[in-house]
Specification:
This protein has helices at 10-14, 36-40, 44-47, 52-57, 61-71, 76-89, 94-106, 110-123, 142-154, 482-493, and strands spanning 158-159, 162-167, 174-180, 185-190, 196-199, 205-209, 219-226, 231-237, 253-259, 265-270, 280-285, 291-295, 300-305, 308-314, 321-326, 332-337, 341-346, 351-354, 367-373, 376-381, 388-394, 401-409, 420-423, 426-430, 453-459, 469-470. It is α+β, with helices and mostly antiparallel strands and 506 residues long. Helix 5 runs antiparallel to helix 6, helix 6 packs antiparallel against helix 7 (94-106) and helix 7 packs antiparallel against helix 8.
Amino acid sequence: MRRFSFLLLGIVLAASASAQTAPAAPAATSAPTDPALVRRALTEQAAAKLTEDQIRRSTDVDSLSRLATIYNGKDFERFAWTLERLVQLMPDSGALKYQLAAFYAGRGDKTKAYDVLLRMQAQGFANDPSQDSRFEKIHGTEVWDYLIENLKANAKPFGEGRVAFELPKGDRLLESIAWDPKRKQFLVGSAREGKIYLADEDGKLADFIAPDTQNGLMSVLDLRADPAHDLLWVATTGAPHYKGFDKSIVGKSALVKFQLSSGRFLAHYASPEDRHPHVFSSLALAPGGRVFVADGVRNEIYKLDSDGLKLLLANAKLKSIRGMAVSGDGKTLYFADYSLGILGIDLATNKGFELKRNPERLVLGGIDGLYWYDGTLVIVENGMIPSRVMRLKLARDGRAVESAMPLDAAQPVFDSPTLGAVVDSSLYFIANSQKHLYDGYGVLKDPAQLAPVRIYKSDLRFAWDQPGISSSTLSEVPKATPEQRKQFLEDQKSKPRQEVPKSNGG
């Protein structure tokens, strides 16, 4: 299946934020403040000797996650330092922030719990702690009522998009979609069958390409149509969800080329022959026909040249590369890391950069689909609560986000929305991928729960001339003294909640 869970933070998130009084922490030693010590201190005895400075200097997310499980329920002080550091390193993770707020609330620390929830509300998160027993100790204040009201407001449906058509339900796990403008038809890829279907806006599916020994198709995880060159590019992987899965395809992936008009097989570019598993999960197509494919497990990006696939980027600090898009001038490749936000590569120099924005104002974690449209980036953010589609206006140099415009958010039909295709001035995307119906072994848990696959249509030019939400400014959230908090609440109640246009859909 295309969307594997690569992040070890699940270890932290699964751990309950204990509200019990923790035993006194052992006295810290005067060990040197070397961030690498955190990576080595993964036993209880060694972890108990880490100082606050050592923990707060660490940049190793995976090791900090493992430390958090050691400290949880046993060493309150170090657990708090570790979770706070993880939130600093992963500012886009709403799940981490929510766990930190729950931890503070369980300890009865209203000040810190409110501060975290206020920032989450300002970022657009719509978690509802009113139904979570871990927050019972901080109920019953004006601040609490304000927070709940505004977090719930963030969960209201927004946007003027609609379901364009439905595809018949079935055990196909349709994960990707492309558009053929010459023949006015969609192409849809199946992660279960390895097939590529033709689809129309009446919801009819027709067989187009099937896996065979020549094309080597397995789970189809992404598609890109290149009508100018009559080509269809496919990212395929030997995922356990593929019905033809066996040990011969474990860890194998390929970029496969077909003729768009006929479906005729043209070429097969296999993942590198090494000891590591590969998952080709995302594609990007540049002006002129250049092709890029990302390995979401190895966190590598390859480009196709005359000699085959050539490694363009490999970075061990990345967590999970998802969507990719190339700028209209072909000079920049943007890609989304599910945990870290959007990054880019200058294709002339092969130098990478992080797309700048204020993470307190704009959350860019949880992006699955990424698209270029008329000088902007469009994202499908299924790891956000609520799921949403947004348009990002970039600075002139393409290295920063100037403002963001929600297009559609919290729509009732959104259920793990995934990949899409730009069609004229609209984004068509799979609104309910239904991947949660399959377990980690690729087994469909309950066929009766399968529903028609809804293809949603968002207007990419919605509120085109309006400024949206500025990414460079943020109303300062005050420190939690009663006087400051009272003034903050009064100020917030007198301001509009968001600088976004009203929508007929929400």
